[in-house]
Design brief:
This protein is globular. It contains twelve helices and 14 strands. It has helices spanning 8-23, 50-57, 63-68, 125-143, 146-149, 178-198, 241-257, 263-270, 274-281, 285-294, 298-313, 319-331; strands at 30-34, 77-81, 84-88, 100-106, 109-114, 117-122, 156-159, 164-169, 172-173, 200-202, 205-210, 219-221, 227-229, 236-239. By secondary structure, it is of the alpha+beta class. Strand 10 and strand 11 (205-210) form a beta hairpin. The strands form four sheets. It has a five-stranded antiparallel beta sheet. Helix 6 packs parallel to helix 10, helix 7 crosses helix 9 and helix 11 packs antiparallel against helix 12 (319-331).
């Protein structure tokens, strides 16, 4: 994110504005603040005064994280652009007027946690596009059988005159310890079984629901202990379900082995049993059986193309994209 270049006077003005804001009627005013970049990092509600803020922050490289603490008493952060934000007072936009627990900048959105809900507030044009796409994809999800729908964490949308934000019930993230692996394996076995049952076989490959970015960090646990799938902006109604399983296996392997982005995929291209064996090695026995049942070589070219399209969708260029294009030329074309 880089450093936030703020003069002491600017920080003091922002601090004073937010301090007044926390004491005012939340339905009456708005405060604007400009920063070189959005604050980034967690905060947990605590008290802080201007003097200690200056003392602790100005001399520290982590001042963007400290700056996040200034947002602890507000109800909503509203997008203005990539170099400024607006603190929107009307708390009626929130489902319940709850105390804010934490805030973090993730993938161009400000994620705001309250006691029971999570609000995803778009902070860049890319994030706005993803939010709108997620909203559009609810049409696809509503067409699904109820038993498939309930496997997803389907957000609600709060619309104002100039923005749309997502609201979801608060869930727990998952780790890759042994207990959670069994839980994830069972859940994904249920998910893929249902999706493949409703998919259509066309020329030895299956067409059907594709999540587009399925990995363990996009799996959450609800308060009722049931797992669900989040991040719904890349869903395709007539996609390729197996690509989700392939992406899960690749992401899982590179996360555990701390390898480069597409090293597991390249190893798989050299030895077709590689990812299947990795799923078994990491105790994902049930979805490894799904891999055996539904795998076909035609998915290789489709996976590479889907990943290249992801980079174009996000308007991102990187070494990973270059690596993908090299793999495409070497193994597909």
């Amino acid at each position: 994110m880089g450093k936030i270049a703020l003069e002491k006077k600017e920080i003091e003005e922002c601090f004073n504005a937010l301090h007044l804001l926390s004491q005012n009627n939340f339905d009456s005013k708005r405060i604007r603040g400009s920063f070189s970049r959005f604050p980034n990092g967690f905060f947990i509600n605590d008290s802080i005064d201007a003097d200690s803020f200056f003392t602790e922050t100005i001399k520290e490289p982590s001042r963007k994280d400290k700056l996040s603490k200034l947002l602890s008493s507000i109800r909503l952060v509203k997008k203005l652009g990539t170099t400024s934000f607006e603190i929107a007072i009307p708390s009626s936009l929130l489902e319940i007027k709850e105390k804010i627990c934490a805030l973090k900048m993730i993938n161009d959105s400000l994620i705001l946690w309250t006691d029971n809900f999570v609000y995803k507030i778009p902070a860049t044009e890319k994030a706005v596009r993803r939010t709108n796409k997620t909203k559009d994809n609810l049409v696809i999800l509503k067409k699904l059988d109820t038993d498939i729908q309930e496997l997803f964490l389907i957000p609600q949308f709060i619309e104002t005159s100039d923005m749309v934000l997502q609201c979801s019930v608060k869930c727990l993230t998952l780790s890759l310890d042994n207990e959670k692996i069994s839980e994830i394996d069972n859940f994904l076995n249920t998910y893929f079984s249902k999706v493949f049952q409703s998919a259509e076989l066309q020329n030895s490959i299956y067409r059907g629901l594709q999540h587009g970015d399925l990995h363990f960090r996009n799996l959450l646990k609800r308060k009722n202990n049931k797992l669900c799938i989040t991040d719904l902006d890349l869903i395709e109604e007539n996609g390729f379900p197996f690509l989700d399983l392939m992406h899960f296996a690749i992401h899982l392997t590179r996360t555990i082995e701390k390898s480069s982005q597409y090293q597991p995929f390249e190893s798989f291209l050299k030895e077709k049993s590689y990812l299947y064996n990795k799923l078994k090695t990491y105790n994902f026995y049930k979805i490894s059986e799904i891999w055996l049942q539904y795998y076909h070589d035609d998915y290789i070219a489709l996976y590479i193309q889907s990943q290249i399209e992801w980079y174009h969708y996000n308007k991102a260029t990187s070494d990973e994209l270059i690596q993908l294009e090299k793999l495409q030329k070497k193994y597909v074309l």
